[in-house]
């Protein structure tokens, strides 16, 4: 039904589609304002007889501060919950492997592109909704996201209950080295928050040329590098045009540097309509895990070595994209644009 230019969802929709929409909606809403909602909730409790809950929450926050960059505190029940399969089926989101990853080693997976929210990274590696544990048995994935998400009590605990931790050097060093375990896979969205500003449908623009820190950490710990490309990640939202040189792009870039996260102006569909809202469109996301690049441990790599391996990684990513693009709806004439 269409009214005033808005296409509304029909009343009679199969239950599984309702569950899928709900699963996606809760994640998108919480990803955007989950921390703020938890803060306001604890602030409200201070005005009630339950003020002690807020006090305990912040005491725990102080005691537990380092957990978010020391492997987190995942719950197997949360990671494997059926709830996330509803989320994956919404698009649908699928995980594809091109080679085995031996759990005797540790891995640094570079995820591309960021998209608006990095939903493909969360579904594929933060949960077991796409059967990561079956495709890569023995590996323990950890998705690293913006540190600001862990500044809020309760919300940070929710994030750590799935396979999510704080993206910083300490977190990488702990997971790939200090914990003393093999079979760890760190997933980093290499392009960072700024790359979300390039998340337009049919766009394949990546911030990668100057991103070499993840390569250096992989070399220091001897973690094998694995390129990952998520086809469809940039197609699930529409974003207001912000071409290079425009005032909007200048403003967004400036705000990203100030805030630490990007402010893309985007829209998808709503919960009860297909025209506007913050829920992504039902478009397929196919996340392809490439072949590992073997890395020998070197605790003090030269810049020349970092540059060489970075170039090898870039070439592997480009090959991965070219080999799989037509399978997942990308025009044969499209190629990666690297910034």
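Q: What amino acid sequence fits the structure above?
A:
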């Amino acid at each position: 039904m269409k009214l005033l230019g808005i296409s509304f969802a029909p009343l009679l929709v199969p239950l599984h589609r309702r569950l899928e929409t709900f699963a996606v909606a809760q994640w998108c809403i919480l990803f955007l304002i989950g921390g703020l909602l938890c803060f306001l909730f604890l602030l409200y409790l201070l005005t009630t007889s339950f003020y002690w809950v807020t006090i305990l929450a912040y005491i725990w926050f102080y005691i537990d501060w380092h957990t978010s960059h020391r492997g987190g505190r995942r719950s197997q029940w949360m990671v494997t919950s059926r709830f996330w399969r509803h989320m994956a089926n919404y698009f649908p989101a699928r995980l594809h492997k091109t080679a085995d990853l031996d759990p005797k080693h540790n891995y640094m997976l570079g995820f591309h592109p960021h998209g608006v929210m990095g939903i493909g990274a969360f579904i594929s590696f933060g949960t077991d909704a796409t059967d990561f544990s079956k495709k890569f048995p023995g590996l323990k994935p950890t998705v690293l996201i913006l540190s600001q998400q862990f500044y809020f009590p309760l919300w940070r605990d929710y994030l750590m209950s799935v396979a999510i931790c704080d993206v910083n050097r300490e977190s990488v060093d702990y997971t790939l080295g200090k914990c003393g375990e093999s079979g760890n896979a760190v997933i980093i969205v290499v392009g960072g928050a700024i790359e979300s500003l390039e998340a337009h449908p049919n766009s394949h623009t990546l911030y990668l040329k100057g991103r070499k820190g993840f390569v250096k950490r992989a070399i220091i710990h001897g973690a094998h590098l694995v390129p990952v490309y998520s086809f469809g990640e940039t197609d699930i939202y529409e974003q207001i045009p912000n071409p290079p040189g425009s005032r909007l792009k200048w403003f967004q870039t400036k705000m990203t540097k100030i805030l630490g996260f990007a402010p893309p102006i985007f829209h998808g569909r709503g919960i009860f309509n297909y025209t506007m809202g913050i829920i992504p469109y039902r478009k397929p996301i196919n996340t392809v895990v490439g072949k590992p690049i073997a890395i020998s441990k070197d605790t003090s790599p030269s810049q020349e070595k970092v540059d060489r391996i970075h170039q090898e990684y870039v070439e592997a990513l480009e090959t991965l994209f070219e080999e799989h693009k037509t399978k997942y709806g990308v025009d044969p004439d499209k190629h990666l644009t690297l910034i």
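Q: And what stands out in the fold?
A: The mean pLDDT is 94.
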